[in-house]
Every structure is written in structure tokens, then in C-alpha cells.
Amino acid sequence: MSGLSDLGRFSEPALLVLISLAAGPRHGYAMQDDIAGLTGQRPGPGTLYGAIRRLEEHGYIEALAEQDRRRPYRLTDAGRAALGTELERMRTVVSTGLRRLAVA
């Protein structure tokens, strides 16, 4: 599995979408609210839906049946695995960075 790194420079919005969907299915507006609560910044529609499109193309998320004119998405097994791999990678980077900062 190639992981989120194959999404290029757009991996941060994709990562945030996956983190949002890890809590359960959500539609775009609910993802925007969740991401804003997590980061303090609300992603714009172009950023959000671009990330959603790329994640769907990679099989990391899938659209569910429309509900009240909104389309919810959910994490696939591949998306859950990619998210776990990326978060573990980030944990290593953050841990190393904090350890080095404490020594400096």
C-alpha cells in the first residue's frame, strides 16, 4: 500500500478528511465543521471536495446514499489502514522532534 504520500502536496486536507471520517460517516459540511474544531481553520469547499475526490479515487473513502440532499462519505478498510500508517509515521516524526527540542 502506498499510503497518503501518493496524494502529494494535498495530503494534509486528505489526512484531515480521513481523521474526520474515522469518527463515522459525515457529509461535506459536517466534515468542514469537524475539521474546523480540530484545527481552528475551516477548509474551503474546493479544498475539501478536491481531497474527497482524490480519496475516493484511491479507494480510501466511499460515498453513501444521499440523505436530505447531502451525500455522506465513510472510511473504507483501505482508508482506515492508510490513516493508521500515516498517523504512526507522524507519531515518530513528532516524538523525534519533541525529543530533539528538549535536548537543544
UniProtKB/TrEMBL annotation:
SUPFAM superfamilies in the record: Winged helix' DNA-binding domain
Domain Transcription regulator PadR N-terminal: 17-83
InterPro entries in alphabetical order: Metal_resp_DNA-bind_regulator (IPR052509), Tscrpt_reg_PadR_N (IPR005149), WH-like_DNA-bd_sf (IPR036388), WH_DNA-bd_sf (IPR036390)
Protein name as catalogued: PadR family transcriptional regulator
Organism from which the protein derives: Plantactinospora solaniradicis
Phylogenetic lineage: Bacteria, Bacillati, Actinomycetota, Actinomycetes, Micromonosporales
